[in-house]
């Protein structure tokens, strides 16, 4: 059976789709799974166990100049690559117009079908064309975790029961922990209202350094780099600002850490997928939808508004390290 997964973005959403791929492999041992994803996130999809082929697109960039010569040329190349094989099932896990377009362009094998979400789930974007394009629209319980939504959609589309266990299948070139005492601070996120105060990061960093840890400070933008530099300056020799890395390199660097403490962001979700000791910091009560799934163990979520206290995060970190 040949299956095409359409999950284009964003970083956290791509990570949350990985357990569904592992479920498919468990139910259909001979399944060949391909994945369409935005090029920026292709290094992650390529590291997902069981994904045979990653088909990268750049819809975000193409829509800025839809009639440009470069866009038309790159779209044709993408379309030809996408249609080079036919699929028994095309599963749109995104639920948006852009993912519906990709699902529509994909070529079906005789008897093949397109599957998509029939309804919006709480806290997630949804656009009607996804169900218009689908041969089968699958209804999902609205109050559902992002990981569970993808797992249930694939299970209903391919007629199997999701296993009780869950694994992401995210590979890294680094050995987990790798003997380091470095704790990564994932302080950057796409929304300012999800950030944790810099003074909190600095206080937490001093506590960790006093215990013998070092602090790693990744960044993905100029603003995040400047924040990393301010935190590192306040912490002194025990902190290091990492160079700008692509997602593959960042995954390896995180995997080699002793653990991760971060806000609600894609890198935090990578830490969960790598099964690292991790505390995820929420200023909004949305951990039920995107945070670590219970039972709590090495990954924990803390929530308070306007922001969790340093003591709360410190206590959660102690539990994650047990």
Tell me what you see in this structure.
The chain has 322 residues and is α/β, with parallel strands linked by helices. It has two domains: 2-158, 3-Layer(aba) Sandwich (Rossmann fold); 182-320, Glycogen Phosphorylase B (Rossmann fold, 3-Layer(aba) Sandwich), CATH 3.40.50.2000. Helix content is 39%, strand content 21%. It contains 13 helices and twelve strands. The protein has a six-stranded parallel β-sheet, with helices on both faces. Strand 2 (32-38), helix 2 and strand 3 (51-57) form a beta-alpha-beta unit. Helix 1 (11-27) packs parallel to helix 7 (146-158) and helix 1 (11-27) packs parallel to helix 11 (266-273). The longest helix has 17 residues, at 11-27. The model has no long low-confidence stretch (mean pLDDT 96).
User: How many DSSP E strands?
Assistant: 12
Largest sheet, spatial ordering of strands: 3-2-1-4-5-6
pLDDT under 50 segments (min length 5)? Answer: none
Helix content: 25-40%
**Topology pattern, helix = H, strand = E:** EHEHEHHEHEHEHEHEHEHEHEHEH
The gyration radius over C-alpha positions equals 20 Å
Query: How many individual helices?
Result: 13
Distance between the termini: 42 Å
CATH level 1 class label of the largest domain: Alpha Beta
Tertiary shape: globular
Give the domain tally. 2
CATH architectural grouping of the largest domain: 3-Layer(aba) Sandwich
CATH fold label of the largest domain: Rossmann fold
For the largest beta-sheet, the strand count, sense and barrel status come to: 6 strands, parallel
